[in-house]
Amino acid sequence: MHIVLAILFLLVALLAVVSVIRQLKYKNFFALAFSALTAAVFGFFSIATIITEISA
């Protein structure tokens, strides 16, 4: 069941990466910071959850 959560986290992280690219294009640095932070946090938790599920 945790693998579904990891996939959802990964989808959110990928969407945040798309947002980072868009905010770079618009030069909106405040939104860029939040998008980058979101991509980093959700990316970390998705990778950590996937590793935990594989190793368990």
From TrEMBL:
The chain crosses the membrane at residues 29-51. It comes from Oceanobacillus kapialis. Keywords: Membrane, Transmembrane, Transmembrane helix. InterPro entries: DUF2759 (IPR024490). Pfam families: DUF2759. This is DUF2759 family protein.
